[in-house]
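Q: Sequence in, structure out?
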Amino acid sequence: MTVQNTTVKDIYVGNGATTKFPITFQMTDHPEYIKVYITGDDSVAVETENFSVDLGAKTVTYPANGDPLPDGHKITIYRELPLYQLMNLVNQGPFFAENIELSFDDLTFICQQLNEKLNRTLSAGIDVSNFNNTFPVKAGMSFRINDAGDGLVLTEDPARVLPLAKDVLEQTKQVKESAVNETTNIKNTAIEELTAIKDAAVNETTEIKDEAVAAKNTAVEAATTAAEDAAQKTVENITAEIDSKVSAAEDSKKAAAQSASSAADSMKAAQTSKEAAEASANSASSSATTATEQADRAQGIADSLEGLAGITGIATTEEAIAGESDTKAMTPLKTKEAINEQTQNKADLVDGKVPKDQLPSSVYIPANSNLDLYLETGNYYSPTDLEAATILNAPLKTAFFLHVDRATELNSNQIIIHYPFNGRVLVRLYYAGAWSEWSELGTTIGDIFYRPFLMPGYVKANGATVIRTDYPNLVVYANDNNLWTSTPNTEPWKFGVGDGNTTMILPNYLNRVLQGGDSPAVLEAGLPNITGYFPADTRDYAASNYGGAFSQAWLNSQSDGHDGNSRTYKYTLDASKASNIYGASNTVQPPAIVLIPQIKY
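A: Exactly. Output:
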């Protein structure tokens, strides 16, 4: 036989009643190559022998004895050939084509079997070369791509190190903020003190100047009074008194001059003090500016060190475990010792897995709960599909595990992993009192999926006219990939331009079957033509007794020797005469399941 079917396994979900499950992959006459695995509530596939195989009907009956597969449990029917071959070709011996073809079939089955297993493994891209994909293994450690990009190296488990790093970063931010505040206070205090010194010097200079002016005025008034008194006395007394007054006036003048000189000296000294005070104030201002710049540099250093600013020493392993000091750092070795000390003997692996009784505890989510209210950091779960279907604002209606991280009172995120753990992970964010839409990881904007229901973050690819601002990511996707069209009816895989401004038309995948090709195109439905003909010898009165897909052509006529002529006609079969769907295509519509086409936005 030929091997044109690449399927190697069938997976079905039980409903509590079905016991016969179809085999859709190709098989030889070896029922022992069929393996059956059952996946229960623990999401672990376990091989079973409680089944029977009917290769003629291409079905597997499970169980051979016992109750049907429970609702929600899975059965995997797998074709697995042993990795050996038993055909021995002898020189000059028999050489049967059928045996050779069977061997080729087995080898093809084995290749498909190995390819299916490889598809379930991690692998590098086609453009990667010279990469050592041997990964190191050590308990409690993770691994990453090395700095050279050509292999893997051990590294600390991020789940263990990140909480410690967050604590150190928070402490650094506090130290940085304290240093900035203290420097600002010192700067402000220095400016205030220097301003007070400057004001005091100016005030003192003004007082000295005022005293000198007052002394000068007093001397002038005394001289004027003496002159007036002298005019009223006799000449004899005037001369003596004038001499006395002149002498006193001279003395007062000298005293006034000395006071004025002293005042001038005091003014010069005050001016010098003022200039010194202003220089001191400018110096203090410059020092304050320098202090601010140094504080800014200290802040930059604190930002760059990310956790070392304000650290006064190195913590011991005991101090790291206790977590009581916020001014000491840890070396990588101390960090490792602290982590090992905290995590040793916390979970003993059994068959490479952590036992259920040693897993972190999770909080049960009751039926009819509202996920919008789960804002506190922690692990939560809804164990059954029946209960999960009642929970508000859950992205899907199946059992799930929920992890919540709360950064601040206004900032949280939720991560949901659905049972069974089949790789479907959805995330949403809470910010400033509002939740975002659920977004499924592992998909990109513009991806097309077919599902029996509309998934969160997707819109139906049904050719509907929508508002562009409602789907800004799809507008960018269409721009980046040249997927606009003014004729969406002939190019339904593209986005219609709509009115060219506010609206657009979504791709339309309704009522169409996907088919691979070198470039996108639309293939109209059709069937291959049915043709044929046959000759007939009939009498004239029956010559027109035909219709539908048949047509008639006269060949010849001759006497039948009885009551008239008989004619020979050729009747041609052309199915397109009955319906134009025949002959319009080289393909036949196969049986199909209709799902909802939807595009990630």
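Residues 1 and 101 are 7 Å apart (CA to CA).
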